Amino acid sequence: MDLEQRLELATRGTVEIIQRTELAKLLEEKKTPRAYWGFECSGKQAHACTE
Amino acid sequence: MMHIGQGLVCGSKIQDMVDAGLHFTIFLADWHSMINNKYGGDMEKIRTTGRYFKHCFTALGVPEDRVEYLWASELAEQSGYWEKVLRVAKATTTQRVMRALPIMGREMKSQDTEAASIFYPCMQAADIFQMRLDVACAGIDQRKAHILAREAGEKLAWGKPVSLHTPLLIGLAGVQDAEKGSFDEDPKISQVIAAKMSKSRPENNILIHDEPTVIDQKIRKAFCPPGVVEGNPLLEYYHILVFGRSEPVFLKRDSKYGGDLNINSYEELETHYKSGKIHPQDLKNNMTQILSDKLKGVRLYFKKHPEPLEEMHRLKAS
Fold first, then answer.
1. Is the pLDDT reported for residue B26 higher than 90?
2. A36 contacts on B by Cβ (under 8 Å)
């Protein structure tokens, strides 16, 4: 997979990236960049999506 | 119980990131949940839910061997963690921390915020630096916490994490009956959060466990006036869950209404809907089918592994 394809995968369906240029540089330069998503552990349906 | 906002929006994004070659940590924020009074701050219940989330993401196509799971309580035990929380707190102001507070069911203006809440955004930033992350992903409602992390990181010379934000999925009732309240300075985000918060009505959200008949019942009642785009959850679901995944739509339609239709972009769908070429019922029937297909694997997984779901039902009942 080339850089363009990886960038497209990482960015599709997002509403904002701060900053896209930083992400492109990261994918280009770092072998395995580290990412995360934090989840609050709640059984309620509302906004358990994010921390 | 996990709804499709978390399951499909977050789950697919995590999959994308792994496929794009990133190392991905799913961070189970038990301490943060406690601060936010989830289950009244009962850590045992919070952890039961975290363990259930692991099963959900596995069922959604993010297998355990492709991601790393980490509990906030494990991270907080590492040496240097609490120092980072304090360093972040030193690098920002109370005002900025208050603005970055999670909106979980409380209005920004409320005066009786527990003092523990102040730790929350500082911990969110410290988490990022302690895990040595390059990219922080979250829903758009978390942007202020991420900006705080970026600003603190720059001041402390720890680097600025890239922030990647996904849209928030509105409930089936749409945003027209949004509860009143100020949850964000951006009125649109505030409105979406308010709409998301109508948690008193379970029929407002589709769960990842819902059977096709249940999905059908819920979608039937969804807000979807003919030709109306604004605040229309059905169109949003196509936008985010289908076209956002670069998937085209083959809209099945009765031949007396013009027959099946290939749609390649969200803009095309919106134009057809506005002009009345596509009827609400077509949007609804096809979305029911799309969601039933997307969630098939989850239903099969939990049929084979019923325990975590049963545990969640017991929590709910207790």
1. yes
2. 24-27, 127-128, 131, 133, 135-137
Kindly report, residue by residue over B72-109, the tens digit of the pLDDT.
999 999 999 999 999 999 999 998 998 888 654 445 55
Return the number of CB contacts < 8 Å for A and B.
204
pLDDT in tens, B157-171: 999 999 999 998 988
| DSSP states along B73-131 | HHHHHSTTHHHHHHHHHHTS-HHHHHHTS--TTS-TT-S---GGGGHHHHHHHHHHHHT
CB B27 within 8 A of CB B127: yes
Q: Which of A11, A36, A42 sits opposite B25 (nearest CB)?
A: A36
Residue A50 to residue B138, Cβ atoms within 8 A: yes
pTM: 0.91
Helix and strand numbers, DSSP H then E, in chain A: 2, 2
Name which of A19-23, A43-47, B46-50, B84-88 the model is least confident about: A43-47
Chain A positions with Cβ closer than 8 Å to B: 1, 6-7, 9-19, 22-23, 26-27, 30, 32-51
Predicted pLDDT at B44: 95
- A-proximal residues of B, 185-224, CB under 8 Å: 193, 196-199, 202, 204-205, 207
Q: What share of chain A is helix, strand, coil (3-state, %, to 5)?
A: 35, 20, 45
ipTM reported for the complex, 2 dp: 0.91
Find out whether B107 and B54 touch, Cβ atoms under 8 Å: no
Nearest CA in chain A to B128: A36
Q: For residue B40, count other CB atoms closer than 10 A to its CB.
A: 8
Q: Which two tokens stand for residue B282?
A: 């077509």
